[in-house]
Design goal:
Blueprint: H1 10-13, H2 37-48, E1 56-59, H3 66-76, E2 85-90, E3 100-105, H4 108-132, H5 134-164, E4 167-174, E5 177-186, E6 189-190, H6 193-202, H7 207-264, H8 268-283, H9 297-307, E7 313-316, E8 326-329, H10 334-338, E9 340-341, E10 358-359, H11 362-365, E11 370-374, H12 375-380, H13 382-394, E12 396-397, E13 417-418, E14 422-427, H14 429-438, H15 440-445, E15 448-451, E16 455-457, H16 460-476, H17 484-498, E17 503-505, H18 508-524, H19 532-546, H20 548-558, E18 569-570, E19 573-581, E20 586-599, E21 603-606, H21 607-610, H22 616-633, E22 641-647, H23 660-672, E23 676-677, E24 680-682, E25 685-686, E26 692-693, H24 698-712, E27 719-723, H25 734-741, E28 746-750, H26 753-761, H27 779-798
Parallel strand pairs: 1-14, 1-15, 8-11, 11-14, 19-24, 21-22, 24-27, 27-28
Antiparallel strand pairs: 2-3, 2-7, 4-5, 5-6, 9-10, 12-13, 16-17, 18-23, 19-20, 20-22, 25-26
Length: about 800
């Protein structure tokens, strides 16, 4: 039977791009995003709506320009910056473990910090001037003079009492310490009790006199201790009065200085903190006097640390911000994303300076703007994802340290921060689907999905924009110029990447890589431009870098380690084509598909499935074969067959349904006994109705079978059968197109499994007549008769 009606002509197979006139290209623009109109519209919607939950998930494959599109969309998004705020922490003088948050209009926090510093310096000068003023000295002197007079009076009276009792007050030096002691006086001179005890022993002093002196001594010592304690309490009272005097004299000038700060920053919360600051200063005036008196320079450092409680820690500073803040966080750990509290340098510290150890994360840095995260990164940090959702739901962020086994738990709990931030996640399609289906919070928080497609329509206007993009890359990266033929070659390769003649790939990172490599090869070969030959050479070199596994398998086929028949016919055996996709390189390789049948009730047995080497789609495809056999041939009798289908010498997992058609043909051949051509290979999916369905990787499959035939030697009859619906996906290399042009290789496009059978067997397939029978001499007649015979065999055996 002639196969000519199904064979594609060289004109139908050849794919080319019409010449591009470079001079007619529109000007290249940095702002042009090609082929992603829907995604850009969704992104614009997400950026424009301020309501809660309108965060954006950017979905698409890497290299489709997601990040570039986002940056350009943001560059065109020019909202007012008046809503931006500076964030800072200050000491909480009432509860030091809970630092207070102060917010400022954009850029004002730094001004406040400088004004606060100047105010503290002015207060230092005021306190210093006050301590040297005559008024203060006079009032202080009166208090001290009154105390000293009373002190002298009481000490004098005690001294007289001690003298009358025969004792004298002496000062005893014991190293660096000095103490006051009472000693008895004998013969006008003080004598120690040790000497006196010696005289008792020698009889110079009577025991009665010794006992009397001791009793007097202990009584006077008790009196002296009480006097000294009273004087110490009086000294503390005087010091307290001096402190109160200082505080009352300084209250007004300090209040005046801080009042000016309040007027400059009229925020109620800032004013409230300044009030508490004033009271703390008045309660700790001594801190300002530690550096007084010309102490050594290293004391100034200690003084500075004491006054650091009166500073401010700006954790978000917008003073230099001129555009909407956009933060890309590449490592969204809890500290990086939400901030942290540094551990103290030493075990002891003033808790009022703990606010200085607070650090912001990227979430706060993006407050009022955009935070961009990779979905896979944030999901790897489970705690970060949970906390991020909490922040987006409540609008409140908290900075807290995570437990650390090497340091004690932090007791610092900074005041929470109200923030408004829009989060943009960038990730793949599967990640979005999983989150949307399994995380109810995700649906509410990320209401906008901007989906970036891997392909775009190939239209005259899109081709021109595509070429303008390539020309801009050439200009920006100083590559060799592209000729019109070079542009067409790249567009042809782009269409092949998109696997459709009327589409172009939007994985621009791969396109730009090809352009760079072509420019490098052209310059090495001494060319002044990038033409079509250079592009083809670049693609060949790229293939050579990655095709070692392909060459290994081809060598095994050529050496008959893998048995494949490329001539003649065989029953129950045909050549399928598998695609090995390594991600960065895909290639086709022929594989033998065989089938064996016998009467029985086992149906179609999937040997790959039974051995655990097939995926779910492959298993489904095999089940479809049973449905086709029943509906096509066994309407008037039970289907009584056991058929095993196998991919010979395949020891790796296999999936997909692109071998369904060749599997069905081998089963039908095994049933009917009609041999199949071995010089042909076949790819395609078939449904239960017998219709041929398109499959992926059709170009790689044709080229893979051609490569083996070419190396074995082209006979002129070899070829590949593909679904007719795959013609639009057929973009072959020049070597295959040339062989087809010369009649050395053939491609057949079919719409049904019957058409494929006619090509493979050379016999008509046969159609059912009105009585439900197939014409004698056809493939389907032979199949039907054999299946009926098998049913009768089973019936006879069972009875």
């Amino acid at each position: 039977m002639s196969t000519q009606p199904y064979e594609l002509s060289p004109e139908e197979i050849r794919f080319s791009i019409l010449p591009i006139k470079i001079e007619n290209l529109p000007p290249a623009s940095d702002a042009t995003i090609i082929g992603q109109g829907k995604a850009l519209a969704a992104l614009s919607l997400g950026l424009g709506i301020k309501a809660k939950g309108y965060n954006v998930y950017i979905q698409g494959a890497p290299g489709t320009g997601r990040r570039t599109a986002l940056l350009r969309a943001l560059s065109q998004y020019k909202p007012s910056l008046e809503h931006l705020r500076d964030y800072a922490y200050v000491s909480n003088f009432t509860n030091p473990t809970e630092p207070i948050l102060l917010t400022f209009p954009r850029g004002k926090a730094r001004e406040f910090k400088q004004d606060l510093h100047n105010t503290i310096e002015e207060i230092k000068r005021i306190i210093l001037v006050h301590s040297e003023s005559e008024e203060f000295k006079n009032k202080k002197g009166l208090l001290l003079s009154s105390f000293e007079q009373e002190e002298n009076r009481r000490l004098s009276m005690f001294e007289q009492e001690a003298t009358t009792a025969g004792f004298q007050i002496v000062q005893i030096n014991d190293g660096e310490e000095q103490s006051t002691e009472l000693l008895p006086v004998k013969e006008g001179k003080p004598i120690s009790f040790e000497e006196l005890q010696s005289q008792v022993a020698s009889g110079e002093v009577s025991p009665q006199e010794w006992n009397t002196l001791r009793e007097q001594y202990y009584g006077l010592m008790d009196r002296m201790r009480h006097i000294f304690e009273d004087l110490r309490q009086s000294r503390l009272t005087v010091d307290q009065k001096i402190t109160e005097l200082t505080r009352e004299m300084l209250r007004h000038p300090i209040e005046t200085v801080l009042g000016r700060l309040k007027e400059t920053y009229p925020s109620p919360k800032i004013n409230q903190w300044i009030t508490t600051l004033q009271e703390d200063i008045l309660s700790h005036l001594s801190l300002f006097l530690k550096d007084r008196g010309g102490q050594e320079q290293n004391s100034r450092r200690s003084h500075t640390s004491l006054l650091s409680r009166y500073g401010i820690n700006i954790i978000v500073d917008r003073s230099t911000t001129t555009e909407l803040p956009v933060i890309f966080e590449n490592r969204p750990t809890l500290p990086n994303l939400f901030g942290s509290i540094e551990s103290p340098l030493s075990g002891q510290e003033d808790l009022r300076t703990a606010y200085l150890r607070i650090r912001s994360g990227s979430l706060l840095q993006a407050a009022g703007g955009i935070l961009v995260l990779r979905a896979e990164d944030i999901l790897d940090e489970e705690e970060s994802w949970t906390y991020l959702k909490r922040v987006l739901q409540s609008g409140i962020a908290e900075i807290q340290n995570q437990p650390n086994p090497y340091s004690p738990p932090s007791i610092i709990k900074p005041e929470p921060i109200e923030i408004d931030v829009k989060v943009i996640l960038m990730g793949g399609e599967m990640t979005y689907d999983v989150l949307y289906q399994q995380d109810p919070d995700f649906q509410k928080l990320f209401k906008i999905c901007a989906e970036f497609s891997n392909t775009m329509p190939r239209l005259p206007e899109t081709e021109q924009l595509y070429c303008s993009f390539l020309q801009r890359v050439v200009h920006e990266e100083h590559l060799l110029p592209l000729t019109s033929e070079g542009l067409c070659a790249i567009l042809r390769w782009s269409a092949r990447q998109a696997e459709h003649r009327q589409k172009l790939s939007t994985q621009f990172s791969l396109v730009v890589d090809l352009l760079r490599e072509a420019s490098w090869y052209a310059s090495r070969q001494g060319y002044a431009t990038i033409d079509s030959k250079t592009v083809r050479y670049t693609l060949e070199q790229k293939q050579n870098f990655y095709n070692l596994p392909e060459e290994t398998l081809q060598a095994m086929i050529l050496s008959d380690e893998i048995i494949i028949q490329l001539e003649g016919t065989a029953v129950g055996k045909a050549n399928g084509i598998a695609v090995h996709d390594r991600g960065y390189y895909a290639y086709g390789i022929p594989v033998v598909v065989s089938a064996r049948v016998a009467p029985g009730d086992g149906g179609v047995i999937n040997i790959e499935g039974e051995s655990g080497l097939s995926g779910e789609i492959f298993d489904k495809a095999v089940l479809i074969l049973s449905g086709y056999l029943r509906s096509r041939y066994a309407r008037n009798f039970p289907l009584s067959i056991t058929a095993s289908v196998c991919f010979e010498q395949m020891y790796t997992p296999i999936d997909g349904d692109s071998a369904t058609a060749v599997q069905l043909c081998t089963i039908l051949s095994a049933i009917s006994g009609i041999p199949l051509r071995q010089d042909l290979a076949m790819t395609g999916s078939v449904n239960q109705l017998g219709d041929m369905q398109p499959v992926g990787g059709v170009s790689e499959k044709v080229e893979g079978f051609f490569a083996i035939c070419e190396k074995r030697g082209l006979t002129g009859s070899q070829g590949v059968i593909i679904p007719k619906r795959n013609i639009a996906n057929l973009i072959l290399n020049e070597r295959v197109e040339e062989a087809i042009q010369q009649g050395l290789f053939h491609i057949y496009a079919v719409e049904t499994i019957d058409q494929a059978l006619e090509i493979l067997t050379g016999n008509p397939a046969g159609e059912l007549d009105k009585n439900g029978n197939f014409p004698p001499g056809t493939v389907n007649y032979a199949v039907s008769q054999e299946l009926r015979r098998m049913a009768e065999v089973i019936h006879t055996f069972e009875t």
